[in-house]
Specification:
Length: 124
């Protein structure tokens, strides 16, 4: 795994096009129609994981949740944030930042409830 990460880092080190070029336009107040479509589409995909998080918090149990899936999605959403910075797309950046937070909360809730469930089993 470490070798893979090192090879990826070496490969990306020579790519000057991967540097975020225009960060000022991310804060510009004018919106294009494509950005509005991106905002609407991003809302649906971003909040798709929210019902599982809410259900887990309500039942106070880690049952039915796969933390690997949330972790993998979080890693790729971070890649989407980077991509959004490269193409200067506010919707891509904004929705994926929110999605990373939701996935982080899902994994944190899973870890907490899993520990509570394991400690309850040990006491019995």
């Amino acid at each position: 795994m470490t070798l893979f990460i090192v090879l990826c880092a070496l490969m990306l080190a020579g790519c000057s096009d991967l540097i975020v070029q225009d960060t000022k336009s991310l804060l510009a107040p004018q919106f294009q129609r494509s950005e509005l479509v991106g905002l609407v589409a991003g809302a649906g995909t971003t909040f798709a994981a929210l019902p599982d998080l809410i259900a887990m918090l309500r039942r106070r149990s880690s049952q039915g949740m796969n933390p690997r899936m949330a972790g993998i999605m979080g890693v790729f959403q971070i890649a989407w944030i980077y991509y959004g910075l490269l193409i200067v797309s506010r919707p891509v950046v904004m929705w994926n930042v929110i999605a990373v937070v939701i996935n982080f909360l899902s994994v944190a809730a899973y870890v907490r409830f899993d520990r509570l469930e394991r400690s309850a089993v040990r006491r019995v």
